[in-house]
Write a structure and sequence with these properties.
The complex is a heterodimer of chains A (165) and B (347). By secondary structure, chain A is α+β, with helices and mostly antiparallel strands. Chain A has 5 helices and 5 strands; from the N terminus they run E-E-H-E-E-E-H-H-H-H. The longest helix of chain A has 23 residues. Chain A starts with a strand and ends with a helix. With 347 residues, chain B is α+β, with helices and mostly antiparallel strands. Among the domains of chain B are: 47 residues, Uridine Diphospho-n-acetylenolpyruvylglucosamine Reductase, domain 2 (2-Layer Sandwich); 107 residues, Enolase-like, domain 1. Chain B contains 13 helices and 12 strands. Chain B is globular, with a radius of gyration of 19 Å. The chains are: A alpha+beta (165), B alpha+beta (347). At the A-B interface, strand 4, helix 3 and helix 4 of A face helix 2 and helix 6 of B. The structure holds flavin-adenine dinucleotide and FE2/S2 (inorganic) cluster (2 copies). One FE2/S2 (inorganic) cluster binds next to loops of chain A.
């Protein structure tokens, strides 16, 4: 049984026919849509490397069946920067050494973007660490990651204020 | 993964009509898709419930009860301010479970119906009576740190992993169900089943039945000022419970007027003992009282292997959860929900 789905990824519309419903959103992105920025760590919801935004919410794309995101709006790490200008979370990860090998980084950054949008952690380091606990880093860059998220949250809040002023 | 058909019904009636033996309902998929990958489950058909209308609301009914639609996402329930103010230990339990990404996807119905994390069940290969009735249980004699100390049988020693289910049991939640034979309700106490000789029958759901809502009775909100969830884990966050406890009190004039206590990760269902609650009523809160209640709650506990330590751990967790509840619900959700760390004012 094949399934036709239509989804938006980083602003671009994709019409896809899935010959098999077993395809996860993660495999669809990496293997069908040639967007390998989203990483596969555990493939079981345990590491967060595959984190993307679906309709604005961070989820594990490895446990999301592609057929279920018909009509959804997906944002991946490839969709954050505007041209050469990085997203504030990306900039903060570079400034704070929020990574070593970089494998977990796309998931960390997407998760941080989701966390900041949710707005429950503010710039409290303890709440940021708790809110980021779904993203494991084998290189243990946690200190830099938490500081990067805190810094980005502050900068984005300041930008918001400036815009609304 | 075994191949499957996929269908997305637009009404509860259509969903029930689509059910055939071997089919499975799909919520957020965070448990089911995982188990399909390991081979522990292999449904021939997935019936996606997530587009069913009317099941994603949190409503306070005329009789004061609160009805949570089965499709409400875990994070949306926990972060709903009105809900969290009335049922703080439910919100705390949800936020102590899984990760933010998983909670965003997971439905409350799926959370209740989720399957055991017993590694021998999950791997799809080991002998497991829950997966393949009658085949045997490789968990017995294996690593039993996560296994039951109450209500287990020779056919299964697994525990239920849901944090959310523990405060729901303490608060006498009612599960609303729709299925081929119409609608019915099951009290939380009867929803999850102890293994006995039929561990494959995990819940009160009959084939083809759907959880449509979870209802908290009006009385449950009376505990709002004194209720806590406490969860012991191998790491501070993003880990299943070693043991956990939901404790809720009503305190009037320095005495306990009503008490609720349920334990998690000690059995195949949240564990509640009426006598443990009753002995606290009329008494002033004290560490000695809470220790007695905790001991009563764990009465009859027996190691199912090399896990005798869990009995004492559960007793202490229960007593400490009660002490935290007596100290009062924190004004704001702790940065580390349900954790023994980072909450000095309420230690
Ligand atoms: C890495 C990891 C860590 C986790 N940590 C925790 C934790 O610490 N604490 C915790 O409590 N949980 C934890 N979880 C489990 C998580 O809470 C569950 O996977 C989730 O709640 C299941 O909800 P779902 O909607 O995704 O269910 P699904 O995966 O869609 O379904 C689960 C089961 O329920 C059935 N089902 C779903 N909805 C219904 C319905 N409405 N009626 C009848 N049957 C239904 C399905 O057929 C399936 O059998 C963790 C999960 C992962 C992957
Ligand atoms: S790859 Fe999805 S959580 Fe690890
Ligand atoms: S930077 Fe290497 S895994 Fe995180």
């Amino acid at each position: 049984m094949s399934h036709s789905i239509s989804l938006t990824v980083n602003g671009a519309r994709h019409d896809v026919t899935l010959e098999d419903a077993r395809v996860t959103l993660l495999d669809l992105l990496r293997e069908r849509l040639q967007m390998p920025g989203t990483k596969k760590g555990c493939d079981r919801g345990q590491c967060g490397a595959c984190t993307v935004l679906v309709d604005g919410r961070r989820v594990n794309s490895c446990l999301t069946l592609a057929v279920t995101v018909d009509d959804s709006d997906i944002v991946t790490i490839e969709g954050l920067a505007e041209g050469d200008s990085l997203h504030p979370v990306q900039t903060a990860f570079i400034e704070h050494d929020g990574f070593q090998c970089g494998y977990c980084t796309p998931g960390q950054i997407m998760s941080a973007v989701g966390l900041i949008a949710e707005g429950h952690a503010g710039d409290d380091l303890e709440r940021i660490r708790e809110g980021m606990s779904g993203n494991i880093c084998r290189c243990s860059a946690y200190k830099g990651i938490a500081e990067a998220v805190q810094d980005a949250a502050r900068r984005m809040a300041a930008d918001e204020e400036r815009k609304s002023a | 993964m075994r191949a499957f058909d996929y269908t997305r019904p637009a009404s509860i009636e259509e969903a029930v009509a689509a059910w055939t033996p071997g089919a499975a309902y799909l919520g957020g998929g965070t448990n089911l898709v995982d188990l399909m990958k390991t081979g522990a489950m292999g449904p021939a058909k997935l019936i996606d419930l997530t587009c069913l209308p009317g099941l994603d609301a949190i409503e306070v009914k005329g009789d004061g009860s609160t009805r949570i639609g089965a499709l409400v996402r875990n994070s949306d329930l926990a972060h709903n301010r009105d809900f969290a103010a009335r049922f703080p230990m439910v919100a705390e339990a949800i936020l102590a479970g899984a990760s933010a990404q998983l909670r965003n996807a997971a439905t409350v119905g799926g959370n209740l119906v989720q399957h055991t994390r017993c590694p021998f069940f999950q791997d799809g290969i080991s002998a497991c009576n829950r997966r393949d009735p009658g085949i045997g249980c490789d968990a017995i004699g294996g690593d039993t740190g996560s296994m039951a100390v109450l209500g287990w049988s020779q056919s299964c020693i697994a525990t239920h992993p849901s944090d959310f289910a523990v405060p729901l049991a303490a608060l006498d939640a009612v599960i609303e169900i729709a299925g081929p034979n119409g609608s019915r309700e099951v009290p939380m106490a009867e929803f999850h089943r102890l293994p006995g000789d039929t561990p494959e029958k995990e819940t009160a759901l009959e084939p083809g039945e759907i959880v449509t809502a979870i209802r908290l009775p009006a009385e449950a909100a009376a505990f709002a000022a004194h209720s806590r969830y406490l969860k012991l884990r191998e790491r501070t966050s993003f880990a299943f419970a070693l043991v956990s406890a939901a404790a809720a009190l009503v305190i009037e004039d320095g005495r306990i007027a009503a008490a609720r206590l349920a334990l998690g990760a000690v059995a195949a269902k949240p564990w509640r003992v009426a006598g443990a609650e009753a002995l606290m009523v009329g008494e002033p809160p004290s560490p000695e009282l809470f220790a007695r209640a905790a001991t009563a709650a764990m009465e009859g506990a027996m190691p199912s292997g090399d896990n005798a330590h869990k009995i004492e751990l559960a007793r202490r967790t229960a007593a400490r959860a009660l002490a935290r509840a007596a100290a009062g619900t924190p004004a704001e959700m702790p940065a580390l929900p349900a954790s023994v760390f980072g909450d000095p004012a309420h230690a």
